[in-house]
Amino acid sequence: MLEPIAIVGAGSIGVAFAIVFTRAGHPVRLYDPDAQMRAQAPDTLHARASDLAAAGLLEEKPDALVARLLVTGDLSVAAQDVALVIECAPERVDIKQALFTELDRLTPPDAILASASSALPASRYATDLPGRARCLVAHPGNPPYLIPVIEIVPAPFTDPAAADRAQALFAAAGMLPIRVGKEVEGFVFNRLQGAILREAYCLVRDGVASVADIDTVVREGLGMRWSLIGPFETVDLNTRGGIASHAQKMGPAYERMGAERGQHDPWTSDLVAKVDGERRAQLPLDQWEVRVAWRDRALMQLVAARRKPPA
Ligand SMILES: NC(=O)C1=CN([C@@H]2O[C@H](COP(=O)(O)OP(=O)(O)OC[C@H]3O[C@@H](n4cnc5c(N)ncnc54)[C@H](O)[C@@H]3O)[C@@H](O)[C@H]2O)C=CC1
Ligand SMILES: O=C(O)[C@@H](O)C(=O)[C@H](O)[C@@H](O)CO
């Protein structure tokens, strides 16, 4: 029997995490103070699991996942003998602080207390807890049962073993944990998303493009490549000579664009050398043509898959 998992908050992300962990075979205790959210959670989980099954993405019947779910309005019931708590309550420090204080009292001392927070580091609400060493952020992309990356964000006081344990639990449940090295607001996922959103809002404000057209540029352009390769690999493969050549050619233009928005973070030669060094360790330049051809074959498969009518 796999360890029980507690999920606190039965909204969009809480129910999505309930799918992740019931699908992985864990008993899941889902807590919410709102009776209506509690009442609708099993049906929502069953409906999403049925969609997963129809897409060929679920190896069990949806009923099997619901059978592992216990929904409760009693936090102490949810917290009993769990290995991991995922807090999915509203994005408010006061609510998270109150919950972490209660969970620190109610859970076994070795249970990991993880917040799904979009931007609030654990040091904003766990610093004063006796059990703070087991507290951290585990920030998913929505929905986590389809988007595998999850950011494990330790606070300065988090025990590295607790972060390791959290990564192991999420990885065993089929997710792709990355360790964020420093506590910053918004971590990596939402800082990158925020950078794009800030520019997109400016482009709409200044009458440069419509909301729909900006979404098209990302969906039918940047996003197609980014669903296969990340932003650094994208420009590395776009430019003969790799990312160092890209920085030389495009760096001044990107610096001017940043200055327009009041941002002055130059791509210094040391920074470019660091980025280029990491890229060359992943892809020696003598393999550049081979990888470019791979990229195009992967894009061809993506284009072909998108042409297939949905089941
Ligand atoms: N929706 C998204 O795309 C993502 C959200 N998150 C984060 O996950 C957390 C939850 O977000 P959503 O699921 O979107 O919110 P939501 O509004 O869908 O659900 C929040 C749930 O928390 C419950 N709740 C309210 N007070 C509570 C309390 N004191 N204790 C326990 N539960 C309480 C509500 O009844 C509701 O069911 C937030 O911190 C959010 O920033 C993280 C990644 C993606
Ligand atoms: O975009 C996502 O899935 C996450 O990074 C989020 O944190 C939320 O969408 C956030 O931006 C709004 O709740």
Automatic annotation (TrEMBL):
Residues marked Important for catalytic activity (site): H139
EC number(s) given by UniProt: 1.1.1.45
Keyword S-adenosyl-L-methionine: no
Domain 3-hydroxyacyl-CoA dehydrogenase C-terminal: 186-252
Subcellular localization(s) per the UniProt record: Cytoplasm
One Gene Ontology CC term in the entry: cytoplasm
A Gene Ontology biological process term: fatty acid metabolic process
MF terms (GO), sorted A to Z: L-gulonate 3-dehydrogenase activity; NAD+ binding
Entry-linked InterPro entries: 3-OHacyl-CoA_DH, 3-OHacyl-CoA_DH_CS, 3-OHacyl-CoA_DH_NAD-bd, 3HC_DH_C, 6-PGluconate_DH-like_C_sf, 6PGD_dom2, NAD(P)-bd_dom_sf
PANTHER family listed in its UniProt record: 3-HYDROXYACYL-COA DEHYDROGENASE FAMILY PROTEIN (PTHR48075), LAMBDA-CRYSTALLIN HOMOLOG (PTHR48075:SF1)
Subunit structure: Homodimer.
Family: Belongs to the 3-hydroxyacyl-CoA dehydrogenase family.
Entry protein name: L-gulonate 3-dehydrogenase
